UniProtKB/TrEMBL annotation:
InterPro entries: ABC3_permease_C, MacB_PCD, Macrolide_Exporter_MacB. Belongs to the ABC-4 integral membrane protein family. Residues 255-371, 650-769 form the ABC3 transporter permease C-terminal domain. It is a multi-pass membrane protein. Residues 418-602 form the MacB-like periplasmic core domain. GO terms for molecular function: transmembrane transporter activity. This is ABC transporter permease.
Amino acid sequence: MTPIYMKNAWRNLKGYKARTWMIVFSISICLILIGTLLNTNLHFQKALLHTNEETNKADITFYTNSFTKEVVSELQELKGIQEAEAKFESRARLEVDGQLRNVELTRLPAEGNYRIQKFETKEDTFQKGVYIEKSSAEYYNLTAGEKVNLQLPGRKSTELVVKGVISDYDQIPSEFSGQGYVYVTPETFESLGGQNANNIVQVTVDGARQIDQATSDITQKLENEEINVSRTVLTSETENIRELIVHSVLLLLVILGSLACLLGIILVGHLFYRMILEKMSEMSVFKSLGATSIYFIKQLGMTVFMIGTFTALISIPVSYSAAHLFSTSLTNRLHLVNVPFYFQMEVGAIILGAAYVVPALAMIFPLIRVLMLPVARGLQRIPVASTLKKKQGKSHFFHYETLIFRQAMTKKVQWVTNLLMLSFGGAVIIACTALYSSLVATVDHIQKFSNYDVEWTLSGQIPNDHLLTLAKKIEGSKDAEGWTVRNTEVYQGNDRTTRNSQLVALPKETTFFQPNMLQGIWSFQKDEVVINQDMKDLLGENLNKGDKIRLKTGGKEKEWKISGVISGQLEGPAVYLDLDAYHKWMETNTVNRLAVQAENPNKQGIQKVIDAGEKRFEANNIAVQSVESEEERQNRPEAIIQTIIFALVVVGFLFIIVGAVNLMTAMSANVFERRNDLGIIRSMGGSKLRVYQLFIGEGLLVAVLSSACSILLSYPLHLYLARQLGQTLLNSSLIHVYPLSGAGFWLIISVFIGIAASYLPARKAANQPVRELIERS
């Protein structure tokens, strides 16, 4: 025989279907969000690990001068080296739809695939032509069979046919890196003017082998063979952009998801309280008949069990689907090897446990109120909240607006909960618009550090005076500066850990680069350098102005003093020094980069400079590796920004949905609770329009108040998100921009939500017969 407490629990849930499903819905939203976050993070880590295993990712990559010697077999004999492989990569330019695109060209092996950092392709054998990396093909909208022009630095452009697509999971997707990736066979490479040489050595290391020691041994071995190492890159450094995007998105989702869970518990607790309050008389009867506290604990415990079961049955499959969709989209966009998606058992256990724990926690306060309430008080069938206060004064005039406000104030906890849910949803949406503006303003501010319109990267070393003389002859150019940009290894004190950084040597009195100083000054006195915040964080937070670091470039090492620290630029660690000091150090007077200001800094004027510059360099036999305009430089961070903002908007709309459904549920409950008021109003001649006015007015009151609260909450939320996201992306806070357009947009949306959530309950109330309202009340 079924116990009475089980029957009562089931009957109560059936009697309050709307609120029961609202409770289940509220908890499910929170658990789905948590499950999706946890599963996505675990799947990303799994996909990253699987990608490294499937491609046999290099532990260390050595960039060298061109060499033809066979050194692979000798390197593999070194202690702890598992495999070694030599390759060739070069910058090149691909002409697509009449525009030159910067690409990285890789020469394919003579047969088969590479052993280290293998790519994926459907081709059994490679043909003469060009193969496009998958993300680059999507970025440039290229397909097999199309014709393109490919040009190596200093060589003539050659027309080639796109033969197919290669999935190279080692490459950062083109939409994030801003450059494409192409592959050619050795025969095609020779037809482009390339030589049969290598300039990269990649190795995998035994897990027990120290990376630093292996790097030192291999570098020494290569130098003994007269192969100079210009840069070494570790596996961890190549994954930074992927982890940066994922961690930025997950950080924001975790912060907002935590708020959603907290509000969900508050909402569920309030709904339980209202359900129990309406059953107070019935429960008091049971108490008068001898029901003990154990009976009510069992009954409410059974209620928790049923709600938890419903919640788990909804949350687990939906969380699985959401995590699968989000994880698949993320791995595809970040260009990782697709791995089968599995719902992690530990995540399922967390959701299952939380499905019961959350309603149990939410029910504690209502349960205590029931157990402590005297039997006589419960039998009065008068809600507790309304008996605690005595009416003070009398109103001589009656207005529907007064009734709307009075009803709202008699349900303080309910309306506060509604306000919180809608306010946080609105705050997130407003903060999203402000955060987007801050991101754009920050990127724009960073890009204004570079006060030039076109930048050429040149192959080889060109005398600075000669290059500046040529620059003056470029039609449409206003001014120019020659720079040297290359890799350097940075050391601090006795620590010989390899840290790669971009080294930028530019004129001491440059007007083309005006950064934002965080510490010290932009000064290049004797043996002084300026570093960016990324470099400072890489070396350690204790590094400050006046400290010394050692730079190793081109086989030469020297100690320098830090004169200042500038903000990051979304381009990783960087060290800046005076061009003359660099020339003295390297014993040369050459540069490899030309920055040009255009007379007309519009799109047409910049393109005119690019076209004229290309002709000038070709006429003087200067090989161009790449060219980038201001517009291309500005568009590079857009993909990262869009990914982050999309995640924020999704969470914001989750808040809105929960708040809107909660408001609709509250309005439906008001119809039941206010039958007496409605019956009196209708019996006194109140029209259906008055009923609509009553309920929709309450909805609008909540909407307008929530809109005001959203604006107040969005400001500190935006400051917090801007600081957290800025630290993740740039190691410093984003520029604070708070546009009023976001607040205006949310005001319109909140008014719409208030009307939409109130309309159905208002229609239900207006269509009920007067006699039925009075009899039921």
